[in-house]
Amino acid sequence: MNKRELTPFEATHPGELIKDELTARGITQKQLAQDSGISPSVLSETINGKRDVTLNMAIALEKTLDIPAEIWMNLQTKYVIDSAKIAKKRNTKETISVTLPRKDINLLQDLANKFGWACAM
Length: 121
Fold this sequence. Notes:
Blueprint: H1 14-25, H2 29-36, H3 40-47, H4 55-65, H5 69-91, H6 105-115
Helix pairs in contact: 1-3, 4-5
């Protein structure tokens, strides 16, 4: 059996989870920034996926939200890996080997021309 690794359609930035946590707890970004010591602009950029969760931020979130820093760092690492896999998948062309009877070679060439496939015969 060929084991294929699953790649998500879209990577989830840890900022999404910070936003979800704020909603669940009923607190604002401003309050989290004050309580954690994270700059409001840095927190906003992180929540909006424009900035990574750093080790210092993960530690501040751990102290404020009581969610271990390792979880925040793992989420950031997962996001980076998933983003790389998605980018690679979008730039990779799949090669499929097909064996056809000689009489169907013209059909294959017509399909290749129509769909822009590369054929080696």
